[in-house]
Specification:
Strand order of the largest sheet: 1-2-6
Helix content: 25-40%
Order of helices and strands: EHEEEEHE
Largest sheet: 3 strands, parallel
Structural class: alpha/beta
Number of helices: 2
Radius of gyration: 14 Å
Distance between the termini: 22 Å
């Protein structure tokens, strides 16, 4: 039924139920699940910095910050990723 699923998340606990549904749908359908995370609240206009939604800190979006966010998503959703039987999951 589904070949590709996009799960948009802020990686907050209020996303847990939606995450379970997305991973379950991908697993049941052998679908590709993409995790999409918006880094934070952007500054005004074109900005290379964001306000982190968890900490409230101002961060510059560089390769180190992107890698940190990717690791954080893999940590938060790692159990759901490893329990997938039919589909695949990737962090965008």
């Amino acid at each position: 039924m589904f070949g590709k699923i996009l799960f948009s998340t802020t990686a907050q606990p209020n996303n847990d139920n939606a995450a379970k549904v997305a991973f379950d749908l991908a697993s049941r359908n052998g679908a590709e699940l993409s995790l999409f995370h918006v880094y934070g609240l952007p500054g005004r206009g074109f900005s290379q910095s964001v306000q982190d939604l968890k900490t409230g800190e101002e961060n510059s979006v560089d390769d180190d910050y992107r890698a940190w966010v990717e690791d954080e998503l893999k940590h938060i959703y790692g159990a759901l990723m490893s329990n997938m039987k039919g589909g695949t999951a990737k962090v965008e």
